[in-house]
Fold this protein.
Amino acid sequence: MDHRVHAAALAEGTSHLSGYSPCGDNESALAVARSLGATVLPVEDAAGTLTITGIGAHAGCLQNEAIHVGESGLLTRLMIPIVAVLGKGNVRITDMMASFGVLLASENARSNAFNDVFVPLTVKNNLVPGKAEISGKDGSQLISGLLTALPLTGKNSTLYVEDPKSIPYMFITVDVLGKFGIRIQSEMEGDDIFLQTQDWGHCSQITFKVKGNQQIKAADLAIEGDWSAAANFLVAGAIFGSLDLDGLDTASLQADLSIMDILTEAGASLSRLDEEKTLHVQRAPLNAFHFDLNQCPDLFPIVAVLAAFCQGESRLAGVNRLAGKESDRGKAVADMLTQMGVKNRIEDDEMIICGRSLQQRLLTGTLLRGGSYTSLHDHRMVMALKVAALGADRPLTIDDEACVAKSFPSFHEIFNKIKH
């Protein structure tokens, strides 16, 4: 939801965003919107509609000396380029911003670290429009921030993204900005496989052409259901029973829509009910699968649990993308699986998981090992652990379950309902 809130906060006029669901990340996004100077009215209707009157953003309009982004890495990265256009703020950044003339100074080398970057940082200089070639191997979040900020500069810009990862998130940004009146052209390049299949995993470069002097305009739109959260319930249904989910758009650009492809490759039964308004998943014999999660790294924990119940050796690519999440998720997932008695190993960028079907585990007494587990205060690890607990030989306890409030405060309540 962050892209929509930020666009509405920067827009000229009043926007209405329906379908808002409160959680830690969303509340942080609203706090940032307010700190930019936008007016955010409380949700008062059954549709959960946010009313946001934006600041009519333009270069140099921000008076704040600091923008606080809470604990959201996404918010931090999105805001850095925006702050570099609108004014100054204590934010963090990676080296790619230097390509557009932005310098950063660490204020405290002992403050909170995120990957190889320390916060708070002071953004110095303004964003300079132009042409730049940057690496996308570390993800999409700063790139999304640049795509939001560059239209507000005085001249046209061209952004060449080499080795892009999390490509769907970049195009979500372009799509959302388009709904707020911003036009960005894009062109993807890749090898022969990409040319034949348009498989984003084989895309080697994306070129974004951004016109300057654009104005973000208010819009009314709905906030989509979250495929990242839904993936946990879909996997639970595919392994342990059946489940119906409403409110999901199967035409969405969300990266984690890939869970449908993953489940289908594993042999799960998926169908649409009620004129395609309800997604139905049904338990079926599950077999090993290979899938590249570089474009959807947030799915890794729950897909690893799925692989533990798929007969054979599954291979999940994208391990190298996981170190900078709320935990070192690659190591966290490997440690979780090992503690559960699931053989796994990491080779280069792949995690290889030796799974067994639920039926075989029941027949041979090899259910996952219960006991005490750590979530490492990572909301996605909690959700994956709760699903895994459905196939454990004894109760499974987690040291910190409350951290799910970061993205899904009602997860436990809803999850407990599906168990009965």
About this structure: Residues 90-95, 109-118 have pLDDT under 50 and may be disordered.
